[in-house]
Design brief:
Low-confidence stretches: 325-343, 345-356
Mean pLDDT: 83
Distance between the termini: 64 Å
Number of helices: 14
Helix content: 25-40%
CATH topology of the domain at 204-325: Endonuclease, Chain A
Strand order of the largest sheet: 9-10-11-12
CATH architecture of the domain at 204-325: 3-Layer(aba) Sandwich
Length: about 350
C-alpha cells in the first residue's frame, strides 16, 4: 500500500532528525497552507527561512547541521562541523555552540543565516559523502581545511596529528586532499607534517621533537612508535636502538589521574628490564628549551656509543663542548628527511597543548 503524503513526510522527518525544508514539504504533496497550519499549531518551528523543525524546543547539534544544509541545498556540512559529526556526541574539545560550517559549489551566491558559515569549494561532488546523514565532506578534506585555517601552526599540527592518531584518516589520504587544492594556506607546513606523520610521528609533541630537537641538531635518526611486546603490547615513542635509549614524550600539562602516572612508571620499568634507558621529556624540554635538550641528549647518546656530534642550530646559544657549528642551516620544517616507517598507536586525541 502506497504511503500517503503525510506518512512519506513523516519518514523524511525521521531521516533528517526532524528538520525539513519548504521545498521538500511541497514536493511531498502538501501545500503552503499546510505549512502555515503546522506553524500556527506550534507543531513546527522556523529554524531558517524556508527550513522547519518538528518541535519548539532547543535544537540539537545534528538538527542545526541539517538546517544549515537544507537552507543552502545542495550543500554539505564542512570544516570543524563535519569533524564534530564524525566524532559523535561528547567529544572533548568540540563545542556544540560553534557556528555550523557548510560548503557549497564555487558558482553559488548565498548569504548564510545567523549561526551558519558558508564556504565555496571546488569539485564538491567528489569531496562530499552525500549518503551520510546529514551529507558532509570527507574526513581528510575537513581536516585539511581546519588545519589550513587554524589560529597557529601548533594548532594546525594538532589537527593533523589528532586525525591520524585517532585512525579517522591516513596520511596518504590527507596528502591526496592537499594535492587536490589549487590554493591553500600553510601548504608547505601541512605537507611536511603529513609526511612526518606517515613516517611515524603521531602527536604534536613528537613532531616538535623530530623537527626542533633531533633534525635541527644533527642527532641520530631514531625509530618511532616502535612496538614492544615483551611485557605486553606497548609503543615506544622514540627509540635509539643502537644506543639502547628510549625517549618518551609526555605532552599532557598534567596527569589526568594517578593511573596515568602509574602506567608511565610501569613502561619505564619494563624498558629497564629490556636493557633500555628511558628519558621522559615534556613541552618545556622540547619546545621552550629545544637547544639545551638536544645538547644534553647528544651527550647522553655519546656516552652510550654514538660517534657523532650535536649540530648547533641557528637559534642555539654559543657552541658548547661536544657541539659543532653547522656548516649549513638546520633542515627547515617544510623539507622533511625520510624516517623509518612506524605505526601510530591508537588512542584518544592528540597531546594536550601547553597552557598559554
Amino acid at each position: 500500500m502506497e504511503a500517503t503524503p503525510a506518512e512519506a513526510l513523516a519518514e523524511l522527518l525521521e531521516l533528517q532528525s526532524g528538520v525539513v525544508s519548504r521545498r521538500q514539504v511541497l514536493a511531498h504533496g502538501l501545500a503552503e497552507h499546510d505549512i502555515r497550519r503546522m506553524l500556527r499549531r506550534r507543531e513546527w518551528a522556523v529554524v531558517h527561512p524556508g527550513v522547519y523543525v518538528d518541535h519548539t524546543g532547543s535544537l540539537s547539534y545534528l538538527q542545526r547541521c541539517w538546517a544549515g544544509v537544507l537552507f543552502a541545498w545542495p550543500a554539505v556540512v564542512s570544516h570543524r562541523s563535519a569533524l564534530r559529526l564524525d566524532d559523535g556526541p561528547g567529544r572533548h574539545g568540540r563545542s556544540d555552540d560553534e557556528p555550523i560550517h557548510i560548503a557549497m559549489g564555487r558558482n553559488r551566491e548565498l548569504r548564510p543565516p545567523p549561526g551558519v558559515r558558508a564556504h565555496l569549494i571546488a569539485d564538491i561532488s567528489r569531496k562530499a559523502r552525500w549518503n551520510m546523514s546529514p551529507p558532509r565532506v570527507r574526513v581528510e578534506e575537513a581536516v585539511v581545511d581546519v588545519a589550513a585555517e587554524a589560529a597557529t601552526d601548533l594548532d594546525a599540527i594538532a589537527e593533523l596529528a589528532d586525525a591520524v592518531r585517532s585512525r579517522r584518516t591516513t596520511p596518504d589520504r590527507l596528502l591526496a586532499a592537499l594535492d587536490g587544492r589549487s590554493r591553500l594556506a600553510r601548504r608547505a607546513l601541512l605537507r611536511a607534517v603529513i609526511a612526518d606523520l606517515r613516517d611515524g610521528t603521531c602527536s604534536v609533541l613528537e613532531h616538535a621533537f623530530l623537527a626542533q630537537v633531533e633534525r635541527a641538531h644533527g642527532l641520530p635518526v631514531a625509530d618511532r612508535q616502535v612496538r614492544a611486546s615483551s611485557h605486553g603490547t606497548i609503543f615506544r615513542d622514540v627509540l635509539y636502538d643502537a644506543y639502547s635509549t628510549v625517549v618518551e614524550l609526555d605532552g599532557h600539562t598534567h596527569h589526568s589521574s594517578l593511573s596515568d602516572r602509574d602506567r608511565d612508571l610501569d613502561r619505564d620499568l619494563d624498558a629497564a628490564l629490556d636493557g633500555l634507558l628511558t628519558v621522559r621529556l615534556g613541552w618545556g624540554q622540547v619546545v621552550a628549551r629545544a637547544c639545551a635538550t638536544a645538547a644534553k641528549l647528544g651527550r647522553l647518546l655519546q656516552s652510550r656509543g654514538w660517534p657523532g656530534a650535536v649540530v648547533s642550530c641557528p637559534t642555539c646559544a654559543p657552541v658548547s663542548a661536544g657541539t659543532r657549528a653547522a656548516t649549513e642551516p638546520a633542515p627547515a620544517i617544510d623539507s622533511p628527511d625520510s624516517q623509518p616507517p612506524g605505526a601510530c598507536e591508537s588512542g584518544p586525541s592528540s597531546d594536550d597543548l601547553p597552557a598559554a
